[in-house]
Amino acid sequence: MSPQNQSFLHDTFPSGFLWGSGTSAYQTEGAWNQDGKSPSIWDSFTHSSVTENLDRETANVASDSYNRWEEDVNALEYLGVRSYSFSLSWPRLFPDGNARGHPNPAAVEYYSCLIDKLLEKRIEPIVTLHHWDLPQVLQERFGGWKNDTLVDLFEDYAAFCFHTFGSRVRYWLTMHNPFLMAVQGYGTGVHAPGEKGGPAGSLIVAHNLIRAHAKAWHTYNNHFRSTQMGKVSIVLGSHWVEPQRGQTTAANVGLCQQSVEAVLGWFANPIFGNGDYPVSLKDKHGALLPTFTPEEKLWVQKTADFFAVSFGPNNLRLGRNLVHYGQTVTPDLRRLLGWIKLEYGDPSVLVAEGGWFSEARVGREDTVAIYLMKSFINQVLFDGVQVFGYSAWSLVDGFEWNYGYTIRRGLFYVDFSQQDRTRTPKTSAQYYRQVVADNGFPSEETSTEFTGHFPCEFHWGIADSTLQVR
């Protein structure tokens, strides 16, 4: 184990480490009504009168990856990565939401071409079945994820994807960050579908998401694993919280534990733990919290072949609402990975989303993003956690959900005012390219020196380990 007080570790990653980058369909594909695609809940949400700046704040075109996917593959080649994490669009593949019907041929061809090109370039596809863009028709017909009918519909959709693409895909992710889907989508209404059902709504949705994931995993395990030999997991997001300096009391440590259980443990404990919700959630929510039967606990338990974690600004923003006086949310991926190792028996881990954001005005010299990228990646090296891959998020600038285009998370800059949506590597892309080439941080500095300027309004100062989020 590395010394706790060591701030930076010069070391390299294991041979074959799965360096990568990622995107999601809704944020980057655009082509929202092209080639037979139906609206998703996010299309309806951004087109509705609830949101302002209608023309500017939709993903109708976004990064236009549906039409410019080969440019995305070229960007991956520039980085030298070994994997690409992307999601399939359910409403593009099945405009009516029903995977027992006929798929949209144009969508099947699009994803097949993308997968084939990645494999041709020796880039591993890591495919997410559902990254928040539920078909709007399922929201209207059933109430979306509040209705347990979607558990079976998702199973059908997953089975189709496994059958159609599975011979070429070794890593599947059923869904991305269900915490945000449940809380932001059906609790606070900040995300699509914009429902403000409070904790009761979020708890029901989360329960159905967990069961849908488990069904998809069992479908793969029972019908596809023996021939396709792939692995299936779910991407769980989390913040990290710890006592403030001088406030490390037993009570504060307990509150920190409860805070992480309220986000990561909510989903991880049923899947990676004992098949049930954490006791702290039961104590907090009482009768509002749905229950698993004894049979369901055994059925949900161990329905993941590795632990996939998302660590970025969205969960850290929400984490601030889950702390009390004496604790602080901090961007410490190292300690989060250590917590996962201790809580869930040292699983193999994929950092499926790691990264931060820059204000849109920053442009191509995203110095803060480089600093945090270096910090997050280096934290993976500590403490012997079995991390086998890291996906720098995201590959290209895209539509950032309720923040629209006011922030950027891409390694490649996209000028959304230009029709051609040219991908231009930012300084963070240049830096990540070097880290990938070095396979980490060798003891002898071999990296190229990068030059650039901090923004004019950059605030120099001194701070502790806490990072402020918007």
UniProtKB/TrEMBL annotation:
GO terms for molecular function: hydrolase activity, hydrolyzing O-glycosyl compounds. It holds the Pfam family Glyco_hydro_1. GO terms for biological process: carbohydrate metabolic process. Belongs to the glycosyl hydrolase 1 family. This is Klotho beta.
